[in-house]
Amino acid sequence: MQPHLLAEIDSYHAHVYFDGAAERETAAWIRERVAERFSVQLGRWHDALVGPHSRPMYQIAFAVDVFPQIVPWLMINRQGLSVLVHPNTLSPHDDHLVHALWLGAALAINGAMLPRRIETHDSLIDPIRPNTEPTLKA
Ligand code: ZN
User: Fold this and answer.
1) What are the structural domains, with CATH classification, of the chain?
2) Distance from the CA of 114 to the center of ligand 1, in angstroms?
3) Does residue 129 contact residue 41 with C-beta atoms inside 8 Å?
């Protein structure tokens, strides 16, 4: 078996989950701090369940070179929230369920909703379009 190539990883997502008003406030605090510090694409808030996710959350999409800054930052600033970090390759199912790492408690992911294989990087994976203007040092 040949190992996967790093080049298969197009980008990453971090999903920040919250449950209830207090955790939502923590999630908002994290979101603001991330926006001030990292060039990333912040996704919409999802207070209702969406996709394969089993809790409300928002997504942080980021380029491969941002990983060594933002992931350690989330490790030490997540304040108890669960964060799913997954690569984006052509295998969405495995990206979420096999190749992912969790900060904090792992939550359920509905793998049945995720394709095993997609044909091109364009069909599910949008290129990262940063929508933050970081001014602070992480
Ligand atoms: Zn994702």
Assistant:
1) 8-123 (3.30.70.1240)
2) 11
3) yes
